Amino acid sequence: MILTRFLSKSKPIVFVSLACYLSIHFWIDILPVTTVNIFAIIGKYFILLSLFFGINFIVKRNKINHTNAFAVFTFIALCTSLPEIYLNANVLIPAFFVLLGLRRLISLKTQIEPKKKIFDASLWFFAASLFQPYLVLLMLVVFYAVVEYTLYDAKNFFIPLIAWICGALFFTAFKLIQTDEWQFFYEAYTDFGWNNFRLIWQENPLFICIFSLFSLFILFSIFKIISGVALALKTSLNLILLSFIVVLVGWAFAEKTQIDALGIAVLPLSMLAGNVFQLKIKPVLKEVLFLLLLVLSLSSFLGSI
């Protein structure tokens, strides 16, 4: 079980190796795109690395995972399997905002400055929804966090609304300086319908198939184990689980959204997968899943060369 043994460690060499693998994928995929300027490429690269280290920071700091690299490996394997995730700035940037928002919500368990954290998370989710309007549904995750962590103070229920109103006012003011299109929010947040699943399946059958099976396995496993963990960890896992479901449902009902926007759901899925893999799953099954993700990633890599 070479791959499992390697990822079970938390030594710097493990994360350096994974970061190098991610970087090689990125530069091979991005260089043929000649229409993108160098500053945009560097910006995307640093955001991608921020997602990599951000996921590792969240799962370690909040004790969602133990000292292993399961979560970041899952993130890298799924991202590199579909390079459009990090080639599209309209996916990469909101994914970064979603990660920042999740970090603030999960840290509510410390009960340090809860109002500030709720406001910050709501504002980050608002910023993400400007790129992908269906992410407005992440407000449900914010209210769930308020109920779980700060139900003792009813005023906290108004903080997400205040944050979104402030964000909307600033954005509208900035928008009006540039154009006269004041109907942006109405047009963006009311454009819902069924996604074009047939076209998406035709373009990415392998990724959709493996992503769906892998997601079902992780969801089945997390539902099975979540009742037996400590209360603090249970609440954190519920937050991550809800965010994954919300993003997935939002993507399904976003009429004009392409397959690359599904990459935002990879963030919470990776955190959940990291928690599942560290449990007493049969070593053979764990190794098979890791190899399956690696093969999916390498197939995309070899196809880009």
Describe the structure.
The protein is an all-alpha fold and 305 residues long. It starts with a helix and ends with a helix. The mean pLDDT is 84. The protein contains 15 helices and no strands. It has one domain (2-304). Helix 3 packs antiparallel against helix 4 and helix 3 (38-61) runs parallel beside helix 6.
Task: Explain briefly what this protein structure is.
The chain crosses the membrane at residues 12-30, 36-59, 66-83, 118-145, 157-177, 206-231, 237-254, 261-278, 284-303. Keywords: Membrane, Transmembrane, Transmembrane helix. The protein has 305 residues and is an all-alpha fold.
Distance between the termini: 29 Å
Radius of gyration: 19 Å
Major β-sheet profile: none
What proportion of the residues form beta strands (DSSP E)? under 5%
Topology, please?
Blueprint: H1 2-7, H2 12-30, H3 38-61, H4 70-81, H5 84-87, H6 89-106, H7 114-131, H8 139-150, H9 159-178, H10 184-189, H11 197-203, H12 205-225, H13 231-252, H14 266-277, H15 283-304
Features:
0% strand; 305 residues; membrane; mainly alpha
